[in-house]
């Protein structure tokens, strides 16, 4: 189950699929209440060694509280948190083998960059020469050598972020906790840093846990993502699984752009499921089998880039296809998003990659179009 | 909008400044008066400053005052900082409002009442009055000023800096001395200076709580003035004014310099990007 650095062949890293794999971090029925407010509700989660794990959710979903409980800054009201099989209850933050990179970076303003990085090592009563060596190593790793003698207020935002990272990595913790680490950086720097983080995690062979509200960030860096809402985990899966097969409308809607079509189950068979769109005259056929009865209300979720759009009056069969009228076009440079009216009160979005330089749009406003998709491109959601 | 000062602005500034500083200017001028009569100018002389050096009583009083001020300011700073920490950090504990109210009450309590109650306390516990009772009394009222100053510094303090220190393996007590204290140090120093000044010029509380052999400078000056103002007193006061002014100027220059340096550093950092 070794995670190999980038090479000709990358072996699959998926310990969560192995029933015999021992979890590195385990949350067992953890609940955290602040007065009447339940921040984390009876949550269980397993994270494996060398995983880059992301906790994703909107503000107030409990993701930061969950991480702070692992760091020791909050005590669970109920439940257990285990690290390498050891219960962390009662272990204060300064004795935990985890290090955290704070959202505000929390650099020590009265110490130089070197002093900040060496602080944790000094607490371990490390030999002076070893500290010096490790500090230099961290400065190299984060490309901070020219700034070693500067104080935090003499650094730019991106440099401070790197100092915070170097400081939390210096002790080589068993788990590195990252609390919205890139939130304060501008978009370009953030994207660069995301790739740096993954490369770093792979080369250091450490377990990283990141808290973020930015789905793109989570998808870029993480091996697995836990989507959280109201103190509960809605889905834990790889970025691709979360995107392609969300388990609920919440996840489908939260991650990326999605068309949600309300439908009734018409037919279930060995071959799959047939749906009738509610209030519209088209059907959906997919090979997905769902455990619900005929007549049940479901949702069919399909990503905009999976809907084809062509000029035309009517499709041959209104199965996985429908006629529509272009209502709005958003040109984003790399792609164009078409909002097409299906019937009276439904719109479907479809994205088209602008593969040629377009001067005149092939499809324009108020034109009759046919929208079609592969039945298996979308997913039936029952919740 | 017209540039330059208008006659109205000039007049108001002149009036304001003379209202504030005329008495002090007169005091300073008359400290250089040759004549013994305070109200009659008899020519320039520094003889009152020279005679000060031979006035053993005044020198003793100054020495007592200085010792009391240093000791009580230090003690008040320790207690006031602790109080501020509790108020800002401990969240909502039982009796917090009562505690914060009681800490700040001496700020508005008349000195006479404070002095009297302290006197009653010292009498009740049968403590003979003198140097130590004045010192304790000064600590009592100075610590709430320190608490206010330090608290304002702590409110803007990012708690995650302390969490970061603990996260890196530093126990809480060590974190306080290595991280928190250095960061809030300017506030602590400002609190100490305030406490020092308050103790230096307190007359009322000191007169209630003092005993034989512990006459402070303000008490000495007051008792001499009742026998008539002498240029010697003017000289003492001029020295005090100079000391305080120098202290204030030094402190503000230091602050300003720090600020300029900081701005320069920040510009350098962002320019380098």
TrEMBL record, chain A:
Its EC number is 7.6.2.11. Keywords: ATP-binding, Cell inner membrane, Cell membrane, Membrane, Nucleotide-binding, Translocase, Transport. GO terms for cellular component: ATP-binding cassette (ABC) transporter complex. Pfam families: ABC_tran, TOBE_2. Residues 25-255 form the ABC transporter domain. SMART domains: AAA. The keyword Transmembrane helix does not apply. One of its GO terms (biological process) is putrescine transport. Signal peptide: none annotated. It is an enzyme of class 7 (translocase). It catalyses: ATP + H2O + polyamine-[polyamine-binding protein]Side 1 = ADP + phosphate + polyamineSide 2 + [polyamine-binding protein]Side 1. GO terms for molecular function: ABC-type polyamine transporter activity; ATP binding; ATP hydrolysis activity. PANTHER family: PUTRESCINE TRANSPORT ATP-BINDING PROTEIN POTG, SPERMIDINE/PUTRESCINE IMPORT ATP-BINDING PROTEIN POTA. NCBIfam families: potA. Part of the ABC transporter complex PotABCD involved in spermidine/putrescine import. Responsible for energy coupling to the transport system. Belongs to the ABC transporter superfamily. Spermidine/putrescine importer (TC 3.A.1.11.1) family. The complex is composed of two ATP-binding proteins (PotA), two transmembrane proteins (PotB and PotC) and a solute-binding protein (PotD). This is Spermidine/putrescine import ATP-binding protein PotA. It comes from Roseibium aggregatum. The gene is potA.
From TrEMBL, chain B:
The chain crosses the membrane at residues 7-32, 61-87, 99-125, 131-155, 176-198, 233-254. One of its GO terms (cellular component) is plasma membrane. Keywords: Cell membrane, Membrane, Transmembrane, Transmembrane helix, Transport. Gene3D superfamilies: MetI-like. GO terms for biological process: transmembrane transport. It is a multi-pass membrane protein. It is found in: Cell membrane. InterPro entries: Bact_Polyamine_Transport (IPR051789), MetI-like (IPR000515), MetI-like_sf (IPR035906). Residues 62-254 form the ABC transmembrane type-1 domain. Its main location: membrane. Coiled coil: none annotated. It comes from the Bacteria. Belongs to the binding-protein-dependent transport system permease family. CysTW subfamily. PANTHER family: PUTRESCINE TRANSPORT SYSTEM PERMEASE PROTEIN POTI (PTHR43848:SF2). This is ABC transporter permease. It comes from Roseibium aggregatum.
């Amino acid at each position: 189950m070794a995670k190999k650095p980038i090479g000709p062949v990358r072996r699959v890293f998926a310990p969560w699929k192995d029933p015999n794999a021992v979890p590195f971090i385990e949350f067992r029925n953890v609940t955290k209440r602040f007065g009447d407010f339940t921040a984390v509700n009876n949550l269980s989660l397993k994270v494996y060694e060398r995983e880059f794990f992301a906790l994703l959710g909107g503000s107030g979903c409990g993701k930061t509280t969950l991480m702070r409980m692992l760091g020791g800054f909050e005590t669970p009201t109920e439940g257990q948190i285990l690290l390498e099989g050891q219960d962390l209850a009662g272990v204060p933050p300064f004795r935990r083998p985890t290090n955290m990179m704070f959202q505000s970076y929390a650099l020590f303003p009265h110490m130089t960059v070197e002093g900040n990085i060496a602080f944790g090592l000094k607490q371990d009563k490390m030999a002076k020469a070893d500290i010096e060596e490790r500090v230099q190593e961290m400065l190299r790793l984060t490309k901070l050598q020219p700034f070693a003698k500067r104080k935090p207020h003499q650094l730019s935002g991106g440099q401070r972020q790197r100092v915070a990272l170097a400081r939390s990595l210096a002790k080589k913790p068993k788990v590195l906790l990252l609390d919205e680490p890139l939130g304060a950086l501008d978009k370009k720097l953030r994207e660069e840093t995301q790739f740096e983080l993954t490369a770093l995690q792979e080369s250091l062979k450490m377990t990283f846990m990141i808290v973020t509200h930015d789905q793109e960030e989570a998808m870029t860096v993480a091996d697995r993502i836990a989507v959280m809402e109201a103190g509960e985990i809605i889905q834990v899966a790889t970025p691709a699984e979360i995107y392609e097969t969300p388990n609920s409308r919440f996840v489908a809607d939260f991650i990326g752009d999605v068309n949600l079509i309300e439908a009734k189950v018409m037919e279930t068979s060995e071959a799959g499921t047939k749906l009738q769109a509610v209030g519209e005259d088209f059907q959906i056929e997919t090979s997905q089998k769902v455990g619900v009865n005929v007549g049940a209300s479901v949702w069919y979720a399909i990503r905009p880039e999976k809907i084809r759009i062509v000029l035309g009056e009517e499709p041959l069969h209104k199965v996985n296809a429908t006629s529509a009228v272009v209502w709005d076009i958003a040109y984003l440079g790399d792609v164009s998003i078409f909002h097409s009216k299906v019937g009276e009160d439904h719109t479907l979005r479809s994205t088209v990659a602008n593969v040629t330089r377009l001067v005149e749009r092939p499809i324009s406003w108020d034109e009759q179009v046919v929208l079609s998709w592969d039945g298996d491109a979308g997913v039936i959601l029952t919740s | 909008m017209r540039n330059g000062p208008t006659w109205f602005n000039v007049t108001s500034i002149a009036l304001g400044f003379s209202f504030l500083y005329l008495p002090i200017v007169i005091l300073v001028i008359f400290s250089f008066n040759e004549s013994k009569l305070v109200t009659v100018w008899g020519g320039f002389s520094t003889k009152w400053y020279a005679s000060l050096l031979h006035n053993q009583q005044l020198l003793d009083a100054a020495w007592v005052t200085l010792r009391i001020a240093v000791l009580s300011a230090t003690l008040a700073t320790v207690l006031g900082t602790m109080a501020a920490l509790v108020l800002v950090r401990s969240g909502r504990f039982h009796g917090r409002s009562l505690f914060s109210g009681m800490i700040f009450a001496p700020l508005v309590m008349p000195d006479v009442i404070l002095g009297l109650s302290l006197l009653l306390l010292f009498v009740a516990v049968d403590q003979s009055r003198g140097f130590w009772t004045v010192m304790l009394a000064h600590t009592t009222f100075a610590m709430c000023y320190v608490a206010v100053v330090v608290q304002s510094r702590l409110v803007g303090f990012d708690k995650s800096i302390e969490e970061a220190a603990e996260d890196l393996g530093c126990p809480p007590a060590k974190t306080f001395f290595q991280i928190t204290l250095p960061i809030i140090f300017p506030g602590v120093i400002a609190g100490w200076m305030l406490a020092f000044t308050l103790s230096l010029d307190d007359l009322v509380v000191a007169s209630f709580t003092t005993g034989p052999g512990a006459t402070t400078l303000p008490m000495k000056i007051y008792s001499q003035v009742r026998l008539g103002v002498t240029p010697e007193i003017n000289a003492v006061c001029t020295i005090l004014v100079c000391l305080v002014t120098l202290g204030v100027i030094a402190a503000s220059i230091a602050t300003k310099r720090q600020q300029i340096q900081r701005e320069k550093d920040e510009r350098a950092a962002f320019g380098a990007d």
